[in-house]
Amino acid sequence: MHYKKKESTTHHSFLFMKANDWDELETLLENIDEKTTEMTEKYTHEPPIQKNPCEELICGWGKECVINKIGEPTCDCISKCPSLDGDPLDQVCSNTNQTFPSLCELYRERCVCKHKSNDCKNKINAKVHLEYLGVCKRLEPCTDELMAQFPTRMADWLFQVMRELKKRRELHNLEWEELIAEAESNDEKKHVYPVIWKFCDLDIKPHDKHVSHHELIPITAPVIPMESCIKPFLENCDDNNDGNISIQEWGQCLGLKEGWSSSGK
Fold this sequence. Notes:
GO cellular component, one term: extracellular space
Number of strands: 7
Number of helices: 10
Pfam families: SPARC_Ca_bdg
Keywords: Calcium, Disulfide bond, Glycoprotein, Secreted, Signal
GO molecular function: calcium ion binding; collagen binding; extracellular matrix binding
InterPro entries: EF-hand-dom_pair, EF_Hand_1_Ca_BS, Kazal_dom_sf, Osteonectin_CS, SPARC/Testican_Ca-bd-dom
Low-confidence stretches: 1-23, 25-30, 261-265
């Protein structure tokens, strides 16, 4: 039995189109081509979306990214710090014992003074830096007795901080969670692990097994008002006076035995 091949509906309709139908189709196709050309030209001639040059540049405190004369992003003193609601908790105390409205205002002043701008209020502020959070106040003197006790107090405090972070699941490292669990039942590790953990926590930029003054700010700024010995203690940790505390200096200063501090865990 033979079957007749069935033609497609489209092909069949094309065979029976009248002349004027072809004219309409040609016009329709021409219009489509014209629109396609217009759209292509539109997207071809539209300038590409410009990437913000400042997007990947991170500026320090008191600075902002600006585009220089040759179109390159650079960090410059911030023109105006964000306005705050006057909360005393935003205020900070500098190493020159001046209270600033915010961290931004302190480092803006440092920046404009370093650049000898007319905005500088006092030229000594070219070297100003954060001492501690809050309004400047009279601190309890750090006596010899308090200084002698400080390594133990600091290690105990770090252990409590570490344990609290573990409870909140904010240690961000399973290994540290396991180590602090070990330390809870071992007095020696209770002292050692938090000391090494804090060094690693501070040694961020650059990550070079040394902690600079700038890297120490997260631990000193909130603590100085309550613990006046922390600054002189950490200054004494820098045995070779190179402006940085090595992992060995940190461990020795906080009473770790030889071998623990050099491991840099």
